[in-house]
């Protein structure tokens, strides 16, 4: 009798044990300590005014200024370091084109020399792309906070401060936007998808896509993490073509700060823009993009 009671108590205790997070990070391995890569320098930038922190993810801005923002994602997860496209960097450096690099904390940790090199360039701004490329809408708030905070610390270790948050896979909702706003970061997506990631689309198609879709106020997404083999071939024609259209290049914060800039919302994408396969629920509704890294 006593033995039975004891067993019941034990099983009740087991039930009360903390339940592991149902929606872990993309990789479930524990986060490792972030060691600053170089001595952090004091940050003096004023926080952006509240009107640049709308309650939605920004796809582009409406503006009469003939400017676009080229953005390059440097995605890495705990299991996949990816790489660095030096030729893309060299083209941009040669042309001195203002860009914004959305890096995951993991990418910076696994590419310390390259990250330092990017941080040394005044024409590059850094964006926070989470720590391990987690789908922000699918993880508990505490973990979502950690994803942003950890990468902020890592970017500060480069002597920089991030200018925006870009949720991996474009998965956003109001709570993700509100969370990023706690760091004074607007949530920034894109309106022009180059389609460079994965290498399925050739350079000519990438050029044609970008040149036909880009307009004043556009935010264009590329990748610089070794997952987009044709970007370096497409970039010179894209730069030339956009210039021929009279468009100049600005960073994301400069775009958002254009005097007449009105941010336009990205379409809601609580699961992100690529299908998420869930064993219980089956495929989630595809939002247009199907390749693993073609967006965000
Ligand atoms: Zn990404």
Shape field: globular
Strand content: 5-15%
Q: CATH topology, anyone?
A: TIM Barrel
Based on secondary structure, the structural category is: alpha/beta
Q: Say which molecules are bound, naming each kind only once.
A: zinc ion
Domain count, please report it. Answer: 1
Q: What is the CATH class?
A: Alpha Beta
In the CATH hierarchy, what is the architecture at level 2? Alpha-Beta Barrel
What's the overall average pLDDT, rounded? 82
CATH homologous superfamily designation:
Glycoside hydrolase/deacetylase
How much is the radius of gyration in Å?
A: 21 Å
How helical, in percent, are the residues? 25-40%
Major β-sheet profile: 6 strands, parallel
Number of strand segments = 10
Number of helices, counting only DSSP H or I runs of 4 residues or more: 9
**Low confidence ranges:** 3-48, 281-294
Distance between the termini: 59 Å
Q: Report the oligomer.
A: single chain
Order of helices and strands: HEEHEHHEHHEHEHEHEEE
